Amino acid sequence: MLRFIGAACIALVLGGCASFNNLNNEVSTFGPWPADRKPASFVFERLPSQQAHPERQVQLETAARGALEAAGFRAAADGGSADYLMQLGARVTSNDPWIYNDPLFWRGGFRYGPGYGHNRWGRGWGPGWGFQGGFYNGFYDGYSPSFDREVALLIRDRKTGQLLYEARASNTGPSTSIDYLLPAMFDAALKDFPSAGPNPRNVTTQISTK
């Protein structure tokens, strides 16, 4: 009996750990992908503004590569021989209407161009103000921020420039951190490729622990 209880406890703990590695995403896909097209070689395409921060785009491309390969695509030996162009983007935004609606607070932040955005609020609000999980000076303690995190992927025909497929995956969490979530989010965006819709839909993927 004790052995059975112990085994049940271990299974419960392992199941709980697995659930913590799950990421629930809201996914929307558009196309539709032409019935006569097959996944083939690709190369990543960067907008001029994204080229100004190549380190961020390399991170996005590395994160998306596994999802693209799982969908049947393969990296081209060179850009001139690629069948498809892939454009990637990611962003993090606050979804708190209280912050948006109060004109007292400055909407500060920084962006990595239109492809990768990362906004933060809470620093530089004025003397004595701060944001570390709550408002100080007696305003509202215990406040928990919430952020929308999103990735997007566009697939184009390299020769014609025709847009063939668009996929987006988003989720909400208490942190602006997105780097470790990127592979799981791109997995979600391409999980149903080449299907388009229904939009939006829930897709659960695994967060890599490597």
Write structural notes for this entry.
The structure is a single chain. By secondary structure, this protein is an alpha/beta fold. The protein has 5 helices and 9 strands. It has helices spanning 2-20, 48-51, 54-70, 97-101, 182-190, and strands at residues 22-30, 41-44, 74-75, 84-94, 110-112, 116-118, 147-157, 163-173, 201-206. Strands 1, 2, 3, 4, 5, 6, 7, 8 and 9 form a 9-stranded mixed beta sheet that branches. The longest helix has 19 residues, at 2-20.
Distance between the termini: 37 Å
Low-confidence stretches are: 2-17, 104-141
Estimate what percentage of residues fall within beta strands. 25-35%
Largest sheet: 9 strands, mixed
Indicate the structural class: alpha/beta
How would you describe the shape?
A: globular
Proportion of helical residues: 25-40%
Order of helices and strands: HEEHHEEHEEEEHE
The total count of helices amounts to 5
Count the beta strands: 9
User: Mean pLDDT, nearest integer?
Assistant: 77
Rg from Cα: 21 Å
